[in-house]
Amino acid sequence: MSYRFDNELRLKGTGASYIRVSTDQQDTDRQHSSVRSFQKRFSVTVAHQFEDRNWARDTAAKRPDFQRLMKMVEEGQVQWIVVDSLDRFGTKSAKQLMHFLYTLEEAGCKLYDSTGKEWTAEDDATEITALISGKSSAKEQRSISSRVLGGKIEGARRGEWQGGPVRLGFDVVCYSRVTHEEQWRVVFEGNNGTIIKEDGRKVYQLKRLKVYPDGRTERFDGEKNFPKWQEKTELCRIAPSQDQKKIDAAVDVFKRYASESISFTTLAHWLNTPAQTKPKSGSSQTEIVTQQPAVVPKETLPNEPASTFVGRWKLVNDKGITSSYLNVMSSFTAKRDHVPDAPGTWEVVGNEARFTWEDGYRDIMRWENGKITVMGLGKVTGWDSPPLFQLQAIRIPAKK
Fold this sequence. Notes:
The chain is an alpha+beta fold. About 25% of the residues lie in helices and about 30% in strands. The chain has 3 domains: about 1-140, Resolvase, N-terminal catalytic domain (Rossmann fold); about 170-240, no CATH class; about 295-395, Beta Barrel (Lipocalin), CATH 2.40.128. The protein contains 7 helices and 19 strands.
C-alpha cells in the first residue's frame, strides 16, 4: 500500500527499479540518476535493481531482467517498482502495457515513474493516460523503424556498408568522404567459438583485425565490437580482400558450386579442411560462404593423408558380422548405405577422419596400428564424447 500527500509518497514493502536501453550506444546513467532522485525525494530505498541493455521495447517476453522482475512480483517479493519513465517499462502495444499493469495490480505491486506518478492507480484519468501512452509508444516505435530502415536503404543505394556478415573474399573498408582515400579496413579472421547468452542466444565471438594503410593493426574481437567511424566525414564500403588466398578460395567455391552437385554445408567443411588434404590448391582455412566464420581444428598432429580414408568400407562388429557400408569420397563428402538421404562431409584431423552427417550424427574413422576403426558418437556437438559403438572398417571394391 502507498500513501501520497502532495510532494510526499509513503511506500511500504520491498521496492525495485528497472532500467532499459535499446542499443549499446545509449547510456543508462540518466535513468540511474532519476531513480536515485526518486529515492532521495521520497525517502525510500530500492532493494532490487534490474537492468536490460540492448533490448527494444517490443521484447518484453525475452528480456532476462524484466522476466526476473515480473517473476518476483508474481511471487509477492516486490511491492513497488520505479522506472525513469513509463516507456522504459517497454511494451510493444497498448494492449500489452495494460496486461502488465493488470498483472502488477493483481499481485499488489505498484508501478511509479521517477516523478512519483503511479501508473497502476485505478482512477479513470490514469488508465486513459496509460492507454494513450501505450498507443503513442507503439506508433513512435513504428515511426523510428521506418526512419531507420529508410536510412539504410538510401545508404545501400550509395554503396555504403549497412552492417552484417561480410562475404568470403571481402573486407569492410573505411574511406574519407573528401579525399576518397582508404583510412583503414577490417579483416575478419573467423571466430573464437561461441558463447550462450542469458536469453539462450548463441553468439559468435568474431575475430576482427583493423589494418591501417601504413601497416599498423588493432584488434576488435568479440560481440558488437566493430571500430567506430565518423559518419559525416567517413563512410564504410565492402571491398575485395588484400589476401590473395581468400580471393582464390572464393573463386574455388564458386567453381565447385557451379560444376558439382554440392551443398553449402559441404563447401563449409571443405574450406575448413587443412590445405594439404584438399583436392584443390589455393584454399586455406578461412570464413565460409554461408556467412558463418570458419572454425579451424585446434589439433596440431601431423595429418594422415586423405587417401588413407577414401574408398568404400564394410563395417563389421567384433564378431565379424557386417553392420553397414560407408562410402568416403575424395571430394570430402561421404554416404552411408543405410541412410542414403542423409549424406555428410569429412575432414582429416591428425590420424582420424571426422564425419558430420546431415541428420545430426557424428562419426570418427581412426587409423591406428595399421587398422581402421569407426566410432559412432551419436548426435553431439563436439568430438570428445565417448563412442556409442566401435566397428572395424574393411576396404572393399567400389560399388558398381
